Amino acid sequence: MTAKERVKTAVRHQQPDICPWQLGFTQIAHAKMVEYTGDPEFAAKLGNHIVGIEPLQPDAWREVKPGFWRDQFGVVWNRTIDKDIGNPEGLVFPEPTLGGYGWPEPDDPARWQDFGDKVAAASDRFVELAVGFSLFERAWTMRGMPNLLMDMHDHPAFVDELLDAITEFNLGLIHRGVTYPVDAVHFGDDWGQQRGTIMGPKLWRRFIKPRLARMYEAVRAGGKHVSIHSCGDVREVLPDLIEIGLEIFNPFQPEVMDVSEIKREYGSDLTFHGGVSTQHLLPYATPEQVKIQARWLMEEIGRDGGYVIAPAHAIPKDVPAENIAALIEAVQGQ
Prior knowledge:
Layout: H1 3-11, H2 27-37, E1 50-53, E2 62-65, E3 68-70, E4 76-78, E5 87-89, H3 109-112, H4 115-121, E6 126-131, H5 136-143, H6 145-154, H7 156-177, E7 184-188, E8 192-193, E9 196-197, H8 200-221, E10 225-229, H9 238-243, E11 248-250, H10 259-266, E12 271-276, H11 281-284, H12 287-301, E13 307-311, H13 321-332
Parallel strand pairs: 1-6, 6-7, 7-10, 10-11, 11-12, 12-13
Antiparallel strand pairs: 2-3, 3-4, 4-5, 8-9
Helix pairs in contact: 2-13, 5-6, 6-7, 7-8, 12-13
């Protein structure tokens, strides 16, 4: 099977020839592995099965001063500590009003000028249109998380207006993106913490679920699969997500959910992408323990499909190179 065929088979809840995998790295972990392997191109040789492609203008990110980058929505990110994502600085919306804010244009030709070429170049793998920071995260980075959570109680009309505007932008991306030969649309949006959802299930269902339903419906209408990333313990809303059309769930964190239990309960509806602990296993286990756990995940959680093995997040800097190498050996050695 090709990489694309393996993932598609798993998503159909059928058994592929081997368990598909996807290994991602933070910048520091990547540099560590380049040094360990002596190969600057080691990551391109991993055989990863999934490619995420985000339609961005060439100037979507601008460095406004050393280590500080402004994104297309006007959020400034301090990357002097976390070089991969960064920390938002300041507020786009200091008050609960959109004022005269001008939203980016999803149909900007510059955004799509090389998107088709990137999709074609990745056609042997499972290709996802990537919509990052797709709703709650986009809102709180612009308004501030404490402010947004308080606004859900004190200024719900503003939250509706803000989330609707973000949804319309995303729908613009979706409607154009599904005309390309991508396999799925992947939405990044963290709702979870170590113990439950950040805003609680009631507010999640009030503010988040209806907008997700519109976006997932647009993806399904375009004939593509729906994939999401949400860190944290979001078990309490998995039935809601299945109801509105979710098919692939990432990162499937073993630190906050029992992967065997979740596979048993929801495995007929969801394909799970993740499952390798980045909080406990990879940083602290021995290489042999990493191999044993990875093989168990591929054999047990991957039985009858519905699974793509991956770290529960981009591999962080505190993971020993030997443990990363052990995980690579386990997935490639199937």
